[in-house]
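The protein record minuted underneath.
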Amino acid sequence: MKYAKFESILSAARMNRYLVASNGNTRKAMTLYRLNLKLSQEFFTVISCFEIALRNKIDDICILNLGNDWLRNGAQPKGVFDNKYCQQTRQNINDGIKKLGNSYTRNKLVAELGFGFWRYLFAQRQYLATGRILLKIFPSKPTSSATKQYNQKFVFNQLAKINKFRNRIAHHEPICFIQSQPIKDSSFARQHYGMILQLFQWMNIKESELLYGIDHIDNACNQLDKL
């Protein structure tokens, strides 16, 4: 496809960063755009696996400590989320229950709640409401020191970065540049990839086995760097 046609479909505003990063080389700009799509596709697969693993680990530990139907019970009057600090969490659960209607099961509710919900369980008030148990899903997490705290806040912030990165991909925003600059670079993507792998390892999940055959992020980043 000629660049003029490519640009007319995707818009000049969208393609401008790719064109600038390619020093005006239109063929290279189109290749860079396609590589960004490929990298985004690779990430979405890995993040999906991470999200499922995270929510299942949280569900397992909460079942042990709060009971099998901990989500629905927690959103009911006098439940663990029935306080002024956890109203959004409670609302999200009740919205999920209402959406499921007669097809409700605990497993369906777990799947219904999004990444943002599970991330926010590590916010201070939600973490306290569930009894300070959620860090147990990371048995291989490093021990905190005077200079580095691997606490609930640290996990919350890491998950927030991954969630923001996930949303960026979902909204078709590029991940192949230095942030806020039209400069081709894989470091932004590699940084988030490293966060995901680290949290897998903290959960005692062998990510290389889980993602066997479906994780090609390193290769996609290498292609980007070589362009």
Q: What stands out?
A: The chain has one domain: 37-226. The first helix runs from residue 3 to 10. The mean pLDDT is 95. The two ends are 19 Å apart (CA to CA).
